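Figure S7 source data.
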Amino acid sequence: CGIFGVFNHPEASNLTYLGLYALQHRGQESCGIVSSDGNNLHSHKSMGLVADVFGNQEIFKSLPGKAAIGHVRYSTTGSSVIKNVQPIMVDYSRGSIAVAHNGNIVNAQIIKDELEAYGSIFQTTMDTEIIVHLLATSKAISLQDRLTDALSRIQGAYCLLFLTETRMVAVRDPNGFRPLCLGRLGGSYVVASESCALDLIDAEFIREIAPGEMIVVDKNGMSSFFPFKKVDPTPCIFEFVYFARPDSHIFGKNVYQVRKEQGRQLAREHRVDADIVIPIPDSGVPAALGYAEESGIPFELGLIRNHYVGRTFIEPQQAIRHFGVKIKLNPVREVLKDKRVVVIDDSIVRGTTSRKIVKMIRNAGAREVHVRISSPPTSYPCYYGIDTPNRKELISSSHSLDEIRRYITADSLGYLSEEGLMSSVGAENAGFCTACFTGGYPVKFPRLLDQDEPQ
Ligand code: SF4
Ligand code: MG
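Tokens for the predicted iron/sulfur cluster complex:
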């Protein structure tokens, strides 16, 4: 998911719309904006893409005020239905509050059972709603203390944006799994999942919000707190591999440069005699450029992408995903004919994409097809907010390298090593979460929401 918020700007909801537009790659199922006019909160949300949900300028008349937060969603917990669209907005004894969440709470079911035993009634199937109930039941007086109370109970991955009538609060979990940054636009503060959203609205990047940090913005300005027990941060390395936009700056690095270095490293580890290097667009492009540069094999565009199709993987149904590859990519025969081709992608999840693409490249006349992947085999599911399928659907959890090679019908197959991946982000940046590659989960999962139990 992606979150965006702005405080103290006359065009708050319009800017949030633009911010969400820049974060669309982080979630395409649904989106929403909640604004505050100083006395009341206002909400507009729906299933669909940002441009479709907010395409009509009239909508912004119903989102008045100088503060707003927004969310783009792809579901990790809770099904993809309208009642699960964020931000969630509730009225309770102390006023109204809205929340937008990127991440996944791993002890959600335990807390939910407890809250229900005490009479809470849940309206959605999202883990995010738990936070709202914890807030409502906290005995603390100040908003900051109530938030600390509530969030101290939850474990897992959360970047959160809260909006009340008079305040905006941003929180990043102590492990810092997901990115979150702070910017300034004249006299207003801006918070966004990725810096590409700040760029779009010409906001100045101030800094990343630190793991475990809570930032409260109100009419007096901004204050920062570290209310949680400190742990060693474990930001998600998969943000660098696939999820974040290449123009963003996250976890202290530019994503494009990291991806290109992954490609160079891949070329050092898995060299092959070939005529051209081609990416599977868009996610494979920076790594393919790095591979070509390091190997000296020319970079070509052998597959052209239809840009009006979203990220294949995020389409929620298997049937659609199946179609996806062909809808999205078409080979350039003149580039591929009679060539020995190295094709680069960022990851193999189920193997569907690679298998179809190898076939497509061969049908276009390629002589050899060598697949190179700019991350290690994805063998374990993510419980921290990336929607990887359960273990049995991950091809590399149950198949050897050669079995996968045969399944995708490649002449050869090479994955970037764990060490290679680490070196691409810089050795000084130790402490990343790499659980989907290694199985070393940095935060244990006592119990997720029932439908999402680990498989
Ligand atoms: Fe990121 Fe993988 Fe860790 Fe999930 S398991 S947080 S995708 S590195
Ligand atoms: Mg891809």
